[in-house]
Design goal:
71% helix, 5 helices, 127 residues, mainly alpha
Length: 127
Amino acid sequence: MLKYLKNLQLGQQLLWSYLLWYLSISFIYFDPCLQLWLSSLGIALIIGAALVISTTCWPVNMRTLDKWQTMRLFLIPFCVSSYSSLIKDQDFFLIFPPDLKTNLLALSVISSFLLISYGLKKFPPNA
């Protein structure tokens, strides 16, 4: 795990930061409504399949995606649709909660992750 964090590239750190923001806000504004999660899953399956088709050039000149790329093509629509439902009528500004405390909490989760990742890069390769 430490080796993985140490070797993360900037784009990967950004994607992990997106996920950490989503998880932080989703935890705080969680809604147990099954319909919300099933609708998000349905959207993820439909849009994820369309994204896989468009990125692999199916059925002509098929390109292979690795398992993480494929997973992200389904996970991102799920996160977007569920996030939108969770923040509806919550007075968010764009993606930001209305209160400073929640914003700072989510930003501190991301900052901690980035500090750990950058901190590990300072150690020698065998450490």
